[in-house]
Amino acid sequence: MDNILEMKNITKNFPGVVANDDISLDIRKGEIHALVGENGSGKSTLMNILYGLYDADSGEVFLNKKKVDITDPRTAINLGLGMVFQHFMLVDTLTVAENVILGSEPARMHFINYKKAVDDVARLAKEYGLRVEPRSKVADISVGQQQRVEILKALYRQAEVLILDEPTAVLTPQETEELFQVMNNLKKQGTTIIFITHKIKEVLAISDRVSVLRRGKLVGTKNTKETNHPELAEMMVGREVLLRVEKTPAQPGKTVASIININVRDRVGTHKVKDVSLDIMSGEVLGIAGVEGNGQQELIEAITGLNRAESGEVLLHGKPIHKLPPMPIKKRGVGYIPEDRHKRGLILEYSVADNMILGLHSQAPFVEKFLFRNEKAIQENAQKLVEEYDVRPPNIKQLVQTLSGGNQQKVIVAREFSRNPEFLVCSQPTRGLDIGAIEFIHKEIIRQRDNGAAVILVSAELDEILSLSDRVAVMYNGEVSAVLPVEKTDERQLGYLMLGGDAQKAEGDVEIETAAE
Amino acid sequence: MWEYITFFFNATILAAALRMATPLIFTSMGGIFSERSGVINIGLEGMMLTGAFMGMMVSHYTGSPWVGLLGALVSGAIMGLIHAVASIQYKANQVVSGTAINIFAVGFTVFMLRTIFNVAGTSPPVPSIGNVSIPIIVDIPVIGQIIGRQNPMVYMALILVVVVHIFLFRTDWGLRLRSVGEHPKAADTVGINVFLTRYMAVIMSGALAGLGGAYLSIAHLSRFGDGMTAGRGFIALAAMIFGKWTPFGALGASLLFGFADAVQMSMQELGIPRHFVQMTPYILTMVALAGFIGRATPPKAIGKPYEKE
Fold first, then answer.
1. A17 in helix, strand or coil?
2. Does A112 touch chain B (CB under 8 A)?
3. Does the distance separating the beta carbons of A102 and B179 come in below 8 Å?
4. Number of domain units in chain B
5. Domains in chain A, ordered, with CATH?
6. Is residue B79 part of a domain?
């Protein structure tokens, strides 16, 4: 097969890092080519160069054997390249059709022919099996549908090569399967696809060939059929990787925390958490699965005191904590890993040492005589934690914002876990992290469990839920629709429940313990 | 009861309301251009004032208020360009840049008035645009009294609203402008030139504010006075927000505020201090911003300079 696209010796430096180091990549016409690597390995940089958003420092791009100079997205579009970004490039307030035609509007004398726009979009959507209503506002449709709009945008511009940047990161398993169908449809119709991901399972499921990047360099390109999961993982990380979390069966003890009929409304009055009741035992991990935005975050905020529940109770060892502010809740032994480490959990402009005492900063030994910082204690604490939790670089004076995502997360984990909390609330603890850091944090969570902590784990990653949890609760539309022992459920069933499937009719003949009990 | 109603809602007051609303309509349409593209334009007041002065000056020297209008348009556009360079090119804080323009315009017009006309406070009378009657309509009872005989700029303002609406919601230019104000990176990735779009929008904004100012000096009156805009630029900004950044919404708000302006004299007769009436635009704006009348959501990217990576 012919190469439709060749990137030759691409190098791109950012201040202090070589993002792409002499990368040469061939893409064949009509293939699905997976591009994998950990975060920061240079996948997105390479694709942004291809799409004209960055200029390469050196290197050449050939399209259909002709050298091309892609200086901006407009040129890329005209050359038949289309890109679906990880963070969608959609205007919420406009309709699906408006978003699709934006920049290439069917217009006469600058007057847009909206009828033609809607018809064109509907026709394209039908042709490629991308179900979406052209007249809907983008703000009103689901994330999966928004992604289809992004793909339609590329197809509308007659893209021959479609770049998908981590398209599955925001999708449920069912939506991912639908996306794969769409990708196969596109392939059949002759579109070439570059598929960026860091999930090896997906590479094996959909791609024809796979290229692996590590630290800005191309490690190699393989035919997907001739490689396997461990080999790709090792290529990505540079060492052998433990793919499953090793853990012994849980030894649940007495109930540590009880959540009783919690209801939460948001500022505009939407009922976000509906009558949720859960018990969490010492020595177990209770996973909460669900598509994002189904009330998980609001539930966690009600437990940790960041938000007040409208009604209901949270008991820690039988004593109510739901009326307390976050600090006293922390003092009673609740550890919390927030879902957004930049917004909550870290102060990016502070040093590693200062971040490691956040929330404890007003307690001994970090403060003396009610007022003054005890620098010695703060530094000793940080030094110890940096070593114990392998934060790199191990410089406690460095600002947290200069650390990689994985090391930032380790700072939070170190701070929260080192106090041996009895009740640990982990919300998306490994989001956006690379395999190495995920492996580390998973081990630490299990270690806390084995030390007798009660753990709540909220995650959008079903793999994470299934490998860490002992019991799994599914949240849909603010309600806990089912609580299942992990060994009696699987990805398919959870995915079905996450999309609002009826717990009683869930596939697989398992007994379902309802949340209401 | 009927007395009170006719006290406020009679043809004379409504015609006056339309006249008072006209500079607000021009300027709020200008505000819509700028803010829909993502650039806050608090400098409307200064752009109006500059337009009022330059309109007067050009009218004085050419003898034609219509050429004066062109002068106001160009001078407003230049003020817009200054705001654009500061806030788009150099990514300055848009509120600070706009405020600087307001302060600059006050000093500039006072200085020019003294230097060129050698007078303080008020310019000599200059040729101005006179009222016109629209045949047939002027003979309709009540309606004729309200809209049948007005200044041509009043009619221009009303037509402008329709034109801006069509521009924003029916043309590809408008679609692109709105996308730039909502999600500039998305616009960039489909090949829209974010910087150019914003430049054009802010310059347009200044030009329309300049016309709004000129209405005061060479249509409503026929002279320029120091600080004659008297906060109307801010009221226009308020009208734009109250109208949720839509042309017809801003028209409605402008008419409401124009009406408040028109009745304030009558209010005094009733013993209500006119200052209370003068507060209404701002109180209504705060009410609108606080979300009592449906949420007033500004364009998402407003106030944020666009950084290409």
1. strand
2. yes
3. yes
4. 1
5. 3-237 (3.40.50.300), 255-514 (3.40.50.300)
6. yes
The b/e string for B95-115 (b: 16+ C-beta within 10 A; e otherwise) is: eebbebbbebbbebbbebbee
Task: Say what the ipTM of the complex is.
Answer: 0.90
| Residue A315 backbone dihedrals phi, psi, to 5 degrees | -110, 135
Contact A110 B172 (CB under 8 A): yes
How far is the C-alpha of A310 from the C-alpha of A498, rounded, in Å? 24
Residues of chain A with pLDDT under 50: 507-517
Predicted local confidence at residue B8, as pLDDT:
75
Find residues 165-204 of chain B whose CB sits inside 8 Å of chain A: 170-173, 175-176, 178-179, 182-183, 185-192
User: Which residues lie below 8 Å from residue A451, measured CB to CB, with a gap of 6+?
Assistant: A420
Interface probe with A: pick from B172, B195, B244, most Cβ of A within 10 Å: B172
Can you give the CATH number for the domain in which B109 is found? 1.10.3470
What is the residue range of B198's domain?
9-129+151-292
Q: What is the pTM of this model?
A: 0.78
Give B223-255 pLDDT, tens digit per residue.
999 999 999 999 999 999 989 999 999 999 999
Q: Which one of B178, B182, B190 makes the best mutation probe of the A interface by having the most chain A beta carbons within 10 Å?
A: B190
Q: How far apart are CA B252 and CA A127, in angstroms?
A: 45
Q: How far, in Å, CA of A350 to CA of A396, rounded?
A: 10
pLDDT tens figures, B8-33: 788 888 999 999 999 999 999 999 99
Quick check: A72 contacting B, CB < 8 Å?
Answer: yes
Residue B277's closest CA among B266, B288, B285, B291?
Answer: B266
Q: What is the pLDDT of residue B252?
A: 94
Residue-level pLDDT at B10: 84
CB pairs < 8 Å spanning A and B: 71
Task: Tell me how far apart the alpha carbons of residues A429 and A431 are, in angstroms, rounded to a whole number.
Answer: 6
- Report yes or no on B288 lying in a domain: yes
